[in-house]
Design brief:
With 98 residues, the protein is an alpha+beta fold. Helices cover 36% and strands 31% of the residues. A 4-stranded antiparallel β-sheet has the order 2-3-1-4. A hairpin with a 4-residue loop joins strand 2 and strand 3.
Length: 98
């Protein structure tokens, strides 16, 4: 894996629990994505969440951005998020996996 995405997600306080459930449920969708190597969802604070995922190549990353997880996140942005998700491409410099 050479590249990734780092997304920061800010939920409206009244929707924070629903955003958490949405991210937990997205794990199954990530498992179904052939080109997503690793996928992590996390919570930073009561309303701040994030996703970090990795890919072997740009085709995998682009495919992920066009996939079901991204679509669900953009749909949620209209009602459950304070603003659109901040999604940034990253280049991996070093990786340690089990």
């Amino acid at each position: 894996m050479n590249i990734g995405l780092l997304a920061r997600i800010e939920a409206k306080p009244e929707y924070a629990d629903k955003v958490e459930v949405m991210l937990r449920d997205a794990l199954q969708l990530a498992r179904e994505e052939e080109h997503t190597v690793t996928w992590f969802a996390f919570r930073e604070s009561a309303t701040t969440f994030g996703v970090f995922d990795t890919f072997e190549d740009e085709q995998g990353r682009s495919g992920h951005l066009q996939g079901r997880i991204a679509a669900a996140l953009m749909e949620a942005a209209e009602t459950m998020l304070s603003s659109a998700p901040d999604i940034r491409p990253v280049d991996l410099l070093a990786v340690k996996l089990p």
